[in-house]
Description:
This protein has 11 helices and 10 strands. By secondary structure, the protein is an alpha/beta fold. The radius of gyration is 19 Å and the shape is globular. The protein has a single domain, classed as Rossmann fold (3-Layer(aba) Sandwich). α4 (115-126) packs parallel to α6 (159-172) and α5 crosses α6. It has a 6-stranded mixed sheet, sandwiched between helices. Helix content is 39%, strand content 22%. It has helices at residues 56-64, 87-97, 105-108, 115-126, 132-142, 159-172, 189-205, 217-223, 241-246, 251-258, 267-275; strands at 18-27, 30-40, 45-49, 71-76, 79-80, 98-101, 177-181, 209-213, 226-231, 234-240. Residues 27, 30, 32, 50, 52-58, 215 line the site of adenosine-5'-triphosphate. It comes from Streptomyces nymphaeiformis. InterPro entries: AAA+_ATPase (IPR003593), ABC_transp_ATP-bind (IPR050319), ABC_transporter-like_ATP-bd (IPR003439), ABC_transporter-like_CS (IPR017871), Oligopep_ABC_C (IPR013563), P-loop_NTPase (IPR027417). Keywords: ATP-binding, Nucleotide-binding, Transport. This is ABC-type glutathione transport system ATPase component.
Amino acid sequence: MPENDEKSPYGDNAEHVLVVKGLRRTFGAVRAVDDVSFTLPPGGSLGIVGESGSGKTTTARIVVGLERADEGEVHVRGRSRTARGRGRAHRLARAREVQMVFQDPLLSLDPRTGVEAALRETLRLHFPDRDHGLRIRELLDQVGLGTRAADALPRQLSGGQRQRVAIARALAVEPAVLVLDEAVAALDVSVQAQILNLLADIREQTSIGYLFITHDLGVVRCVTDDVIVMRHGAVVEAGPTAEVFAGPRHPYTRLLLESVPRPGWDPERIAVARRAL
Ligand SMILES: Nc1ncnc2c1ncn2[C@@H]1O[C@H](COP(=O)(O)OP(=O)(O)OP(=O)(O)O)[C@@H](O)[C@H]1O
């Protein structure tokens, strides 16, 4: 473990894989993230919902380490991620803790690198001494990609297959937390369902915690245990997904739920209903 990491106030055997406390981030006059706190147990799944600009992505980027917080703490497996890293080993160790899957895997996958080669590259970087052949087969199997896909370049794969590759690459480093930022938003509904089922299977097999960033309440209902609702950077409601959906307490949550057409939200209806808030 990196020696310059502070000990977490939550202890070594932290009950949660992820603890986020009091995050704040402003961009000029915009309070993108305003005192956001939440926890994620091992194998748990937390949805962060809110309309565009509510601060979901900035929160996720802070958790991953792509964005810095002005204030607040992020702890993974009981260790602080707030301390700035010294050196390559520290950066790699931090990267292994939290992995992110984006909406468009074409942007995160190297267009010139085949599936197997991409996985091998990641494994070599993080686990130089291991047998990569065996692990690559395991990973392809885990995400339901056949050996035929192993040599394919990203553009030769379907959107769903590409997302499977992105998930396999994230799993390769054995993260504690997987952040999925609108990870199924660009897929057809039937392919969305396949990927969500795959993620549910992986969650059953591992203790990875999921952080689902999405504007799609249908996705949240399907794949999360808990949900937080964000508005203007702040958390307006939080709780078990089933309870929040069955009996939303905050008017904004009620509004969002009432505005749900299938399968996502209708921004126009939200805008009309917001004016009534
Ligand atoms: N790098 C940045 N510079 C300036 N403003 C930013 C930056 N990143 C985010 N913001 C602003 O912070 C607020 C929150 O943005 P954020 O992307 O986190 O929201 P979001 O809920 O993820 O929205 P979306 O669903 O559209 O991605 C917005 O007002 C956005 O314009």
